């Protein structure tokens, strides 16, 4: 019995310490199907998602899902600490429970109590060890507990720093591509003359954002469960919208932005494929077509009306289909697993946001100033009139 307790205790400690090292310290993707963290998230996420999926109200459902990421992190730390307490308790039990218990309990309960007070460095002193092995093991456990606390204290700032950097770019995309972001809206808002460089700069920034997302979320996969602050935003929808835009620029737009679009597409696709592999997700083959033929024609007409130089050859849709096949299956797999909807190619309904109001006000200002003889006071009156009727936008 003592030998079994010794083996189980050593196994518990090795499993927790190795798992914590791979999850927190190791700066690369952790492997292994039987890792404690992997088992924990598989066994907790699916039930959580099952009940959240059945909430009829979208905002309440998204709120429930947003609780999972932070709560799972705290629960994982509790599981690690509890496993270490049990592991050291089994080692004390294997040594024959070498303690002087003032309360007279003794046995495995006393071993667990000593293990718990030692690993959290309480130092109550009501139960004292006797024997060199027991004293040495207590010193080892207290040092392990102190190191565990120090690592955890440094873990939270790293996680939330990566989360904050991710969300800043997603929030900035709202004014550039709508909410949820769409490829049609992103290209339309960058269609005015002189906006080409702004689009190239945006794609360059999102190439770097995709690389940072890949690096941080492979090192800390639990960040994938952290959701954005707004219901219609997510890192997956933003990444998919950038992939849609890049694919469209590469396959169906005659513009200089296509060069940067190739680089951004390669990095963004790399991110979505590797993140799907982290969760052992296979690309979805039977998903609904996000851009059927009639929607593609509508998309092309919309871009033409906005002044985007769209290719009119018959093979542009086929080229786009080839590009989409490279990433949509993986994006759909992540969408189903994380319950993060993918964005449409075109906004499904009339879209009103601050960008439209600002753009319309600026257009009125330009028109007013373009009229010969228009004074600054008259231009100001035009702006005041627009503000007074801003609910019409």
Could you walk me through the main structural features you see in this protein, from its secondary elements to its overall organization?
By secondary structure, this protein is mainly α. The protein contains 14 helices and 2 strands, in the order αααβαβαααααααααα. It has a two-stranded antiparallel ribbon with strand order 1-2. Helix content is 69%, strand content 2%. Helix 1 packs across helix 3, helix 3 crosses helix 4 and helix 8 crosses helix 9. The chain has 3 domains: 152 residues, Helix Hairpins (Orthogonal Bundle), CATH 1.10.287.70; 161 residues, no CATH class; 39 residues.
- Tell me the strand percentage band: under 5%
Major sheet summary line:
2 strands, antiparallel
Series of secondary-structure elements, N-terminal to C-terminal: HHHEHEHHHHHHHHHH
Question: What is the total number of structural domains?
Answer: 3
Order of strands in the sheet with most strands = 1-2
Topology overview:
Blueprint: H1 2-25, H2 36-53, H3 58-94, E1 99-101, H4 107-119, E2 127-129, H5 132-177, H6 183-189, H7 196-219, H8 235-252, H9 258-278, H10 293-306, H11 316-325, H12 328-338, H13 354-370, H14 376-388
Antiparallel strand pairs: 1-2
Features of the shown structure:
disordered C terminus; 2 strands; 14 helices; Helix Hairpins; two-stranded antiparallel sheet; 393 residues; single chain; mainly alpha
Concise synopsis of the structure shown:
The protein contains 14 helices and two strands, in the order H-H-H-E-H-E-H-H-H-H-H-H-H-H-H-H.
């Amino acid at each position: 019995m003592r030998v079994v307790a010794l083996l189980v205790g050593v196994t518990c400690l090795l499993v927790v310490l190795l798992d914590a090292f791979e999850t927190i310290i190791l700066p690369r993707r952790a492997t292994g199907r039987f890792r404690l963290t992997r088992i924990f998230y598989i066994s907790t996420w699916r039930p959580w998602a099952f009940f959240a999926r059945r909430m009829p109200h979208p905002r309440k459902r998204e709120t429930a899902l947003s609780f999972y990421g932070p709560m799972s992190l705290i629960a994982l730390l509790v599981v690690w600490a509890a496993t270490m307490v049990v592991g050291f308790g089994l080692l004390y039990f294997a040594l024959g429970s070498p303690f002087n218990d003032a309360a007279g309990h003794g046995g495995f309960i006393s071993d667990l109590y000593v293990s718990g007070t030692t690993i959290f460095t309480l130092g109550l002193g009501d139960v004292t060890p006797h024997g060199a092995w027991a004293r040495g093991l207590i010193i080892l456990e207290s040092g392990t507990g102190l190191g565990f606390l120090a690592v955890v204290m440094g873990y939270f700032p790293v996680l939330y720093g990566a989360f904050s950097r991710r969300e800043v770019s997603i929030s900035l995309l709202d004014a550039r591509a709508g909410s949820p972001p769409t490829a049609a809206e992103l290209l339309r808002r960058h269609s005015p003359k002189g906006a080409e460089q702004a689009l190239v700069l945006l794609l360059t920034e999102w190439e770097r954002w995709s690389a940072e997302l890949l690096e941080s979320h492979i090192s800390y996969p639990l960040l994938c469960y952290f959701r954005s602050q707004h219901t219609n935003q997510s890192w997956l929808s933003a990444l998919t919208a950038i992939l849609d835009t890049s694919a469209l620029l590469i396959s169906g737009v005659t513009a200089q932005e296509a060069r940067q679009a190739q680089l951004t597409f390669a990095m963004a696709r790399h991110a979505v494929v590797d993140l799907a592999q982290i969760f052992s997700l296979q690309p979805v083959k039977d998903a609904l077509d996000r851009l059927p033929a009639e929607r593609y024609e509508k998309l092309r007409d919309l871009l033409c009306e906005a002044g985007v130089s769209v290719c009119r050859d018959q093979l542009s849709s086929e080229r786009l289909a080839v590009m989409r096949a490279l990433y949509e299956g993986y994006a759909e797999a992540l969408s189903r697993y994380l319950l993060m909807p993918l964005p449409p190619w075109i906004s499904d309904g009339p879209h009103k946001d601050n960008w439209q109001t600002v753009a319309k006000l600026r257009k009125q200002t330009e028109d007013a100033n373009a009229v010969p003889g228009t004074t600054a006071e008259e231009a100001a009156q035009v702006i005041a009139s627009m503000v007074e009727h801003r609910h019409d936008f």
